[in-house]
Amino acid sequence: MIPTSFSSLIGNEPIKLYLQRMLAKKAIGNSLLFAGQEGIGKGLFAYVLAAQLMSGQNGERHRSKIEKGQHPDIHVYRPEGKLGLHSIQSLRQLSEEVCLPPYEADWKVFIVHEAERMLTYSANALLKTFEEPPPRTVIILLSRSQAALLPTIVSRCRTLHFKPISQHDIEQALVQRTDLSGEAIQSIAGLAHGSLGRALHLAHKGGDSTRLHLLDTLSNLPLANYKALGAAVERIVEEIESSRKQAEDAAKEELLKASGEYLSAVQQSSLEKEIEGFSTLAFVQDAQALFNQLLAWYRDLHLLQLTQNRSYLINLDYAEQLEQVVQKGDLMPIEKVQKAIDEAQLALQRSTSLNICLENLFLKLAWV
Q1: Which residues contact 344 (CB under 8 A, 6 or more apart)?
Q2: Beta strands 31-35; 158-161: pairing state
Q3: For the chain, is the Cβ count within 10 Å smaller at the N or the C terminus?
Q4: Measured between alpha carbons, how far is residue 124 from residues 63, 66, 91, 350 in Å?
């Protein structure tokens, strides 16, 4: 169920307070940018802001529809298709709908998820809309990377920077929403790195098997031969693809629930594109998490070599394995590791297969 009150939101108290003051003073920004990492509640804050704007006459009826994801005055746009991009067609639709009056409420709200995945051409088409938005209209862009947005878009928005959620708050949320043991909750909260969304994802999966396989492999380098390298890559890719399929199935279930039982051919096509977009973004997020885990391993190695202090390790559960690797000596410079990872990420963005990206990366990192 989608939240409709600020009291149900977790973390980012300063932003919560700012939005409440903005509503109290009726100084509503027409173009807002919610920036911050994935899974920290940017979308939920957007829905709550929309619910509060519509809480006047017939407020209870509006809240009920928002909770079900069925309010006609909340327009949600997500990346679509296998590339996971906002289509020009959908953003043209936004430009047209923004000029129409609300259907039921006094306000209409447009929420654009993953705004950094707008093509430059289609983003430029929205500049006029951001410059002169119609009255009683709010456009909220959600982005994990403000730097990836056009500067002309950012300059027209009031930007709110969301912070990672504290480990304590994530642990409390997991206690309320899962049946995991205290030790498992503490471990998952630590691995989430401030993202409640990722913590819930890991709890649903029963942990991060991709990370465990990666770190087990890193603990036993070098591999015997190229065949062993290929097998390690294949296993990692299979786990990421399995995670992508789970995300796709979950998205399909949620979207079908929100869309109703009967869909026209056009609605069905739109739904399929949106599900493909969810699947692509899940893949991108898991690949990014893999690269982050890889960099964290080498960071921990250099930290141990310099300080011999375990307390600052990211991978504290692998402290013994890290110390054994450090004792072998001959660590690759962290700058070289960062460069190799950046090149692999760029290749993946250019549609190179994950298998090839990882094979090239691991060869550069002297896995064999």
Answers
A1: 291, 357, 358, 360, 361
A2: parallel
A3: N
A4: 33, 30, 10, 22
CB 54 within 8 A of CB 107: yes
Cα–Cα separations (whole angstroms), residue 331 to 12, 72, 187, 224, 334: 39, 57, 28, 19, 8
DSSP E strands in the chain: the ranges are: 31-35, 74-77, 108-112, 137-143, 158-161
Helix (H) or strand (E) segment spanning residue 272: helix 265-307
CA 37 to chain centre: 6
Task: Classify residue 368 by its DSSP letter.
Answer: -
* Spatial CA neighbour of 29 closest among 169, 216, 157: 157
CA–CA distance, 170 with 176 (Å, rounded to integer): 10
pLDDT digits (tens, 9 = 90+) for 273-332: 777 777 787 888 889 889 999 999 999 999 999 998 988 888 888 999 999 999 988 899
Number of helical H runs and strand E runs in the chain: 16, 5
Q: What angle do CA 150, 354, 241 make, to 5 degrees?
A: 100
What is the four-CA torsion angle of 290, 296, 301, 302, rounded to 10 degrees?
Answer: 140
CA angle at residue 275 from 271 to 280, to 5 degrees? Answer: 145
285, 287, 293, 296 alpha-carbon torsion, rounded to 10°: -90
Closest CA to 283 of 84, 135, 95: 84
* 141, 29 Cβ separation under 8 angstroms: no
Is residue 30 within 8 Å of residue 36, measured between CB atoms? no
Q: Which residues of 319-331 are buried (b: 16+ CB within 10 A; e: fewer)?
A: eebbbebbeeeee
Q: For the chain, how big is the Rg over CA atoms in Å?
A: 22
Provide the 8-state DSSP code for 133. Answer: P
Residue-wise pLDDT for 17-29, tens only, equals 999 999 999 888 8
